């Protein structure tokens, strides 16, 4: 699942416009926040972000034991399989 590297987010909200799932990504205090409960991991937000602030799960330090979780409550491993049954355009994240 994607996560937002807040220091790189400049608050342009382009990702919000690009996201096909209403509410999956929202602006809060000038930063984008992803609701992993409804995010489908389609990758659109990652494609459009001009600062590459949205990163794949594999780069999330909170999920690699380098930091504390961000309160998502989502377990590591969910969504890690390729394809997820949708087959097309999925990234390896
Ligand atoms: S597109 Fe990138 S820089 Fe713009 S609000 Fe979204 S995460 Fe932040
Ligand atoms: S991966 Fe797709 S569903 Fe999830 S926040 Fe980004 S654009 Fe929205």
What does this structure look like?
The chain is of the alpha+beta class and 93 residues long. It has a domain at 3-57: Alpha-Beta Plaits, CATH 3.30.70. Helix content is 11%, strand content 13%. It contains two helices and four strands, in the order βαββαβ. It has a two-stranded antiparallel ribbon with strand order 1-4. Strands 2-3 form a two-stranded antiparallel sheet. It is globular. It starts with a strand and ends in a 38-residue tail after the last strand. The model has no long low-confidence stretch (mean pLDDT 81).
What's a concise summary of this model?
The chain has a domain at 3-57: 2-Layer Sandwich (Alpha-Beta Plaits), CATH 3.30.70. The protein has 93 residues and is an alpha+beta fold.
Keywords:
alpha+beta, Alpha-Beta Plaits, 93 residues, 4 strands, two-stranded antiparallel sheet, binds iron/sulfur cluster, single chain
Give the strand line-up of the largest sheet: 1-4
Order of helices and strands: EHEEHE
From the N-terminal CA to the C-terminal CA, the straight-line distance is: 7 Å
Q: Give the ligands present.
A: iron/sulfur cluster
Mean pLDDT: 81
- Provide the CATH top-level class of the domain at 3-57: Alpha Beta
Radius of gyration: 13 Å
* Strands, total number: 4
> What structural category characterises the helix and strand content?
alpha+beta
Oligomer: single chain
Low-confidence stretches: none
The name of the CATH architecture of the domain at 3-57 is 2-Layer Sandwich
How much helical structure, as a percent, in the residues? 10-25%
């Amino acid at each position: 699942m994607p996560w937002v590297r807040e220091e790189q987010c400049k608050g342009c909200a382009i990702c919000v416009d690009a996201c096909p799932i209403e509410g999956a990504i929202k602006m809060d205090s000038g930063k984008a926040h992803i609701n992993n409960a409804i995010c489908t991991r389609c990758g659109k937000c990652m494609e459009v972000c001009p600062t590459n602030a949205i990163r794949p799960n594999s780069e999330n330090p909170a999920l690699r034991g380098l930091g504390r979780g961000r309160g998502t409550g989502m377990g590591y491993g969910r969504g890690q399989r390729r394809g997820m049954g949708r087959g097309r355009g999925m990234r390896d994240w």
